[in-house]
Amino acid sequence: MSSSPIAGNDSLVAVRDLAVRFATPAGPVLAVDGVSFDIMRGETLALVGESGSGKSTAALALMGMAGLSGKAAIEGRIALRLKKGNECDVNRLSARDLRQVRGNEIAMIFQEPMSSLNPVYTVASQIVEAITEHTKTTSAAAHARALELLHMMGIPNPAKCMISYPHQLSGGMRQRVMIAVALSCEPSLLVADEPTTALDVTIQAQIIALLKRVQTRTGMAILFITHNLGLAAEIADRAMVMYAGRMVEQGAVAEVFRNPRMPYTQVLLRSLPRLGRPREPGQKLEAIPGNVPSALKRPSGCAFHPRCTFMVQGQCDEHAPVIESCGPGHAVACLRWREIAAGRAA
């Protein structure tokens, strides 16, 4: 029997017990703590949570980039099904093999395109470089492919954009260029790390629509990282909620948002303003009390217990919950989820 976590199923990526620990002058920081999840072919998985929850670090680990500083210790398995049909463990690839995986098999869109695009090279140069680095393509064919990608991104006058420098483009245009670079080698998985945070809502909607169109056309999977639950609900098939480096809830996005079982997920949703639901006079949006715990010293037991209104001393502050099923395709890490769901929790 194969020990592969993706053997015999349609998983593109299977992450098992991923842990990322950084060495800092103040002490070791456990940024990601034992996270496991799958990403299926053609689906969108939203990774949601507050800043500091470990979302971006988990994504960088998928790209084999979490340890680039040399100060990170990465444990666990990241099984990736390659285009050729064979499987690799990203966490155990050599630097040379990782260069073949990045861009070709997995690509990433970063939060701020201005810091990701090279300011001294034209748009054409940067897209062409990405293509020729991973494929046996002539320069002329790569230029034609770059022009095609910019047209697919909905950029007006793509020929002019080709000879432009990043500073000559708007924020939305730069983000489209970043997506074009990421898609240039037709990756199986696109990691989008808060790709719309720096954009206004109109451009956000255009970028989301663009990603959906590209996914429908190519069949790629998307890992969409965001703290915006509204965006997650709009684009994702499944949602995974992270808190203090751990996964606390996972399931179909409609199920997680309609029937959240983890108190953290519940209060996140209650803190959102809702159109069409006018508040009563004096009613305020709910805020999560306290602060995200320091990564240098996680609380004992459930990491959310210092902020949780359902916390029971001697239970939640002493025993760490494990992920367990709470419904079809729905999992949660909470010691009291059954009582909370039944309305018996005080």
Question: Which terms would index this structure?
Answer:
single chain; 346 residues; four-stranded antiparallel sheet; 12 helices; 31% helix; 23% strand
Describe it.
There is one protein chain. The protein has 346 residues and is an alpha/beta fold. The chain is built from 12 helices and 12 strands. The strands form 2 sheets. It has an 8-stranded mixed β-sheet, with helices on both faces. Strands 2-1-4-5 form a 4-stranded antiparallel β-sheet, with helices on one face. A hairpin with a 5-residue loop joins strand 4 and strand 5. Helix 4 crosses helix 5, helix 4 packs parallel to helix 7 and helix 5 crosses helix 7. The mean pLDDT is 89.
- End-to-end C-alpha gap: 47 Å
Order of helices and strands: EEEHEEHEHHHHHEHEHEEHHEEH
**Spatial ordering of strands, largest sheet:** 6-7-8-3-9-10-12-11
Radius of gyration: 21 Å
Bin the helical content.
Answer: 25-40%
| Poorly predicted segments | none
What is the overall silhouette? globular
How does the major sheet shape up?
Answer: 8 strands, mixed
Arithmetic mean of pLDDT: 89
Strand proportion, as a percent range, falls in 15-25%
Count the strands?
A: 12
Name the structural class.
alpha/beta
Number of helices: 12
Oligomer: single chain
List the helices and strands and how they pair.
Blueprint: E1 11-24, E2 27-40, E3 44-48, H1 55-62, E4 72-81, E5 87-89, H2 95-101, E6 106-109, H3 113-116, H4 123-134, H5 139-152, H6 158-162, H7 171-183, E7 189-193, H8 201-218, E8 221-226, H9 229-235, E9 238-243, E10 246-252, H10 253-258, H11 263-270, E11 324-327, E12 330-332, H12 337-341
Parallel strand pairs: 3-8, 3-9, 6-7, 7-8
Antiparallel strand pairs: 1-2, 1-4, 4-5, 9-10, 10-12, 11-12
Helix pairs in contact: 4-5, 4-7, 5-7
